[in-house]
Structure formats: C-alpha cells, structure tokens
Amino acid sequence: MKRTVTIASRELRSLFVSPVAYVILTLYSVLGGFFFLSSVLAFDREVLSAQQLQNFEYLRALNLNDHVVAPFFGIMSVVLLFLVPGITMGLFAAEKANGTDELLLTSPITIWDIVIGKCLAAVGFVALLVLLVAFYPGLLFVLQEAKPELGKTLSGLLGLLLVGITYASVGAFASSLTRNQVIAFTLAFVLLLVLWMLSFLADLGATGGSLGASGWLTELLRWLSSAEHFEQLLKGLIDTKDLTYFAVISGSFLLLAKAAVESVRWR
C-alpha cells in the first residue's frame, strides 16, 4: 500500500509540474461558473414567467435541485468526458515515450502497485475537479432563501465523482496501450463517448429501432451506459445496482490496464 501511495503522489506531483493540470483546472472552473450562472438565470426566468402567467401549479413544481443543480451536474459530467483523457493520457504513455517504463517494471514493485498508484493520481485530480463543482451549488445554500435539498445535492456530487473515477480507469487503460499521448487521449475519449452514448442506443431500441426485437440487448446497453447510472444518482437514488456498475466498470478497465502493462514483460 505504501508503494501505491508513493507512486500516486509522484504522479500527482508530475501532473502539476506540467501546465496541463493548471489549464484543465482553469478551464473547468470557468466552464463551471458559466454553466452554473446560465442554469440559475434560466431558473429565474422560468419562475418569473410562471408568476406572470399565474401558473401556480408549475411554480410549485419548480425547485433548485431539478432545474439548477441536476442539469448543472449533468453538463459538468459531459465536460469531464473531454478533460479526463487529458489528465490520464500521460500516465503510461509518457513512461514509454521517455524509456522509463522498463526501469519501473524491473523495480521491486508489483504491476498492481503501478496501475493502481497511477490511477489513484488521476482519481485525486478528478476529486479536486468535483470539489470545484461543489463550490457552485454551495453558493445556493449560502445565498438563497429557498435552498436545494442537501441529500439530492450530495448524491449528485457522488455520482459526478464515480463517473470521474470510471473515466480515469478508462483513460489509464487507453494510456497503457500506447506510447503516444495524442493516441491515448483520442482512444480514451472515444471509449468514454461510447460508454456515455449507449443509453441513447438503448432508447432507440426501446422505441422500435433495429434493437427493438432484442429486449435483453437493450437492457444490456442501458446497464453498460455510464449516463444511465449517473442519472439515477442525480435523482437522489443511491442504489447498490448503480454503485456496483461503477465498481465493475472501473475494476474491469484497471484489469485491462494491468494486462496491457504486464504484456510488455513478454515482448
């Protein structure tokens, strides 16, 4: 465990040596502020419109969690899909490009120590991004008289963190396959995009598309989709089924990354 933590801290420090970490943090903060402000202004317009039209039933249905916090978290999860590959692209690819991977593999450290340590560094960075996101709905608890539901907000943040961890494991796997960081970024992004879009394919099948005749396939695609499970957490529903999904997908890609790193010894 000590070796894993050492590798994670070394990798995390190396992230902050390069300008990539600061660019990602700045970009995520700016985008977060923009999308949060847009959500709040859109909510205010809806409230004002409902008051002017005296649509009191719709006005009672309006709430900060469903109309501000959840859409904001949803947008930021999509932004993570673009940024996490930038964090993970150098985890293994940089070692291969610099020729230090052989030195690392011949040291008295297990492959699991290397893979988990590097992935933990990416997870630590993702956790920092989630903390940045948490700042914005936190303003609603301080400044707004009508506050969001704390449970739903925390559930959404948990979902964002789990999505980020899953993205990090996918990115680690992509980086373990190549020495080119651009290829690692592209491969990770494509894999994450596919995971995210599987629920849309399932919906097409459910509406009578080419997958409509295969109900089991539709359900499988829906289960494999990261967006599907994230949506449940945004609703405040913390189900073991969704937690299991994130654990299984993250663990599976870490296993694949271990196999890819280990294969170098047999070449």
Notes on the structure:
- The chain has 267 residues and is mostly helical.
- The chain has one domain.
- 82% of the residues lie in helices and 0% in strands.
- It has twelve helices and no strands.
- The protein has helices at 2-17, 19-52, 56-61, 64-88, 93-98, 101-105, 111-143, 150-176, 181-206, 215-224, 226-234, 240-262.
- The longest helix is centred in the first third of the chain and has 34 residues, at 19-52.
- The model has no long low-confidence stretch (mean pLDDT 84).
Which value, in Å, is the CA radius of gyration? Answer: 21 Å
- Count of distinct structural domains: 1
Largest sheet: none
Arithmetic mean pLDDT: 84
Count of β-strands: 0
Question: Helix- and strand-based class?
Answer: mainly alpha
Features:
267 residues; mainly alpha; 12 helices; 0% strand; elongated
Summarize the structure.
The protein is mainly alpha-helical and 267 residues long.
